[in-house]
Amino acid sequence: MSAPFRIAVLISGRGSNLQALIDAQQAGALPVEILLVASNKATAEGLRKAEAAGIPTLALDPAVYPDRASYDHALFSRVAASGPDLIVLAGFMRIIDPAAVAGWHGRMINIHPSLLPKYPGLKTHQRAIAAGDTVHGASVHFVTAELDGGPVIAQVELPILPGDTPDALAERLLRHEHRLLCHCVAQIAAGRITLGDSGVLVEGQPLGEPLRLFAD
């Protein structure tokens, strides 16, 4: 039997997407090994979720490093030492130094709560409602030096309802984010999705536009 596809997950908060990966793995729906969960916050609730699942954890405080580049070098060196095939940013709320990103070209993905290229950065639900959008969603993309600007692999859409608040919209989207992230990790683990010179490849063929999952 071949060795399982290995991932490391980076988080900053409650780790709901991490828990979705753990649940899918434990249910046999996601054939990966989660080697490490790392965070920039020792108090991140997601670290406790990892510990409960028996997954090694790492917490590094950016405040003890002189600059972002030094911190990212330390963090990604330790992550690399765990031996992952893929790094999954699942609510990792830091901009990553370009040198660290370059070392993981095509081997690091991020989930972002908007239909990229709309609304990179923060407060995406609030911004979508304020703009009068009727559709919102989430995206999984390969990570590049540009904030939330890497090639998009797949997206999930759901309608913005009359009277939606940012919190209500975020909560309604969350379970679809979980499904989207697990789907993308599974496809990458199976070798179906890769990053080529021209962008995302599916079975070796260029992806013209992001794959679409639709809210049920």
TrEMBL record:
<feature type="binding site">
    <location>
        <begin position="15"/>
        <end position="17"/>
    </location>
    <ligand>
        <name>N(1)-(5-phospho-beta-D-ribosyl)glycinamide</name>
    </ligand>
</feature>
<feature type="domain" description="Formyl transferase N-terminal">
    <location>
        <begin position="6"/>
        <end position="183"/>
    </location>
</feature>
<feature type="site" description="Raises pKa of active site His">
    <location>
        <position position="148"/>
    </location>
</feature>
<dbReference type="InterPro" id="IPR002376">
    <property type="entry name" value="Formyl_transf_N"/>
</dbReference>
<protein>
    <recommendedName>
        <fullName>Phosphoribosylglycinamide formyltransferase</fullName>
        <ecNumber>2.1.2.2</ecNumber>
    </recommendedName>
</protein>
<feature type="binding site">
    <location>
        <position position="110"/>
    </location>
    <ligand>
        <name>(6R)-10-formyltetrahydrofolate</name>
    </ligand>
</feature>
<keyword id="KW-0808">Transferase</keyword>
<keyword id="KW-0658">Purine biosynthesis</keyword>
<feature type="binding site">
    <location>
        <begin position="93"/>
        <end position="96"/>
    </location>
    <ligand>
        <name>(6R)-10-formyltetrahydrofolate</name>
    </ligand>
</feature>
<feature type="binding site">
    <location>
        <position position="68"/>
    </location>
    <ligand>
        <name>(6R)-10-formyltetrahydrofolate</name>
    </ligand>
</feature>
<dbReference type="InterPro" id="IPR001555">
    <property type="entry name" value="GART_AS"/>
</dbReference>
<comment type="function">
    <text>Catalyzes the transfer of a formyl group from 10-formyltetrahydrofolate to 5-phospho-ribosyl-glycinamide (GAR), producing 5-phospho-ribosyl-N-formylglycinamide (FGAR) and tetrahydrofolate.</text>
</comment>
<comment type="similarity">
    <text>Belongs to the GART family.</text>
</comment>
<comment type="pathway">
    <text>Purine metabolism; IMP biosynthesis via de novo pathway; N(2)-formyl-N(1)-(5-phospho-D-ribosyl)glycinamide from N(1)-(5-phospho-D-ribosyl)glycinamide (10-formyl THF route): step 1/1.</text>
</comment>
<dbReference type="GO" id="GO:0004644">
    <property type="term" value="F:phosphoribosylglycinamide formyltransferase activity"/>
</dbReference>
<dbReference type="Pfam" id="PF00551">
    <property type="entry name" value="Formyl_trans_N"/>
</dbReference>
<dbReference type="InterPro" id="IPR004607">
    <property type="entry name" value="GART"/>
</dbReference>
<feature type="active site" description="Proton donor">
    <location>
        <position position="112"/>
    </location>
</feature>
<dbReference type="InterPro" id="IPR036477">
    <property type="entry name" value="Formyl_transf_N_sf"/>
</dbReference>
